[in-house]
Design goal:
2 helices
Length: 262
């Protein structure tokens, strides 16, 4: 009996130990392994990458309308000032003759009036025409005058951004006067439209004969330019001859150039 009981007791203990090990490996008998499972709350293995935050896109291309990151700023094209002609018919040769110019001719001359822009007489520097002022004395008029005055002018606009105005051309002088006394005069001026002087370009008289066309150039002073910018002004030539004898004043190939941004 004892030996049999011992055998039963030994069997029961053996079975109990086996069940104990099974429970330690399988937990509470629910089929999951508890003893050898890694601690998911502890440190992750070193070779496992950290999770990626999918809310922040990686290497997303820029919006098609976005400017390049390194693009330089857009700068408008800078103005390049130019010298531009402001006179109409500056060489006096366009048809019909005298277009663009106002001619105030000598009064009361037999067979007149005679146009100031003409191909007659002294040969033009730029064919066919030139301006011919003077050419008659007061005694040549009918009735006679103590003096005779004629005038040639053109109005033109100077831009508000003009930085320089240069007037050029050629002139010649012929006279029947003699000696060193001034009897006949010529002035070439920039004026306001009402005739108020702005700046003189050139003065001539009978004591300054010039038998061939001679070039002249005048850069308007800062003070004169200040009165011209943004305004319409007048280029005016005026000759006056006295009672006897006469002087001829010729102009050709004129130009008024203003430097500004077109």
């Amino acid at each position: 009996m004892r030996s049999g009981g011992f055998a039963v007791l030994a069997f029961a203990l053996l079975v109990g130990c086996a069940r104990g090990r099974a429970l330690n490996q399988q937990g509470d008998g629910d089929g999951s392994v508890q003893a050898d499972a890694p601690d998911v709350q502890g440190d992750a293995p070193a070779d496992v990458a950290p999770p990626i935050d999918v809310a922040l896109p990686i290497d997303m291309p820029p919006h098609p309308d976005a400017p390049p990151v390194d693009a330089p700023p857009i700068v408008p094209d800078a103005c390049v000032p130019q010298q531009l002609e402001k006179l109409a018919n500056p060489a006096l040769d366009l048809a019909p003759a005298g277009m663009g110019w106002t001619q105030v001719t000598l009064p009361d001359l037999p067979g007149g009036p005679y146009p100031l822009i003409t191909a007659d007489g002294f040969a033009a520097q730029s064919a066919p025409n030139k301006a011919w002022l003077g050419g008659a004395a007061g005694s040549d008029a009918s009735p006679a005058h103590s003096t005779l005055t004629d005038q040639l002018f053109q109005d033109f606009a100077i831009p508000g951004d003009a930085t320089q105005v240069v007037i050029t051309g050629v002139f010649a002088v012929g006279t029947t006067e003699s000696g060193g006394t001034v009897f006949d005069t010529f002035t070439f001026d920039i004026t306001q439209q009402n005739g108020t002087p702005i700046e003189n370009i050139m003065r001539l008289d009978n004591t300054m004969p010039q038998g061939a066309f001679t070039a002249f150039s005048k850069t308007i002073s800062a003070g004169g330019l200040a009165q011209m910018v943004g305004k319409t002004v007048r280029l005016r030539a005026t000759s006056t001859n006295d009672f006897i004898n006469h002087t001829n004043f010729f102009l050709d190939t004129l130009s008024v150039k203003a430097t500004h941004c077109p």
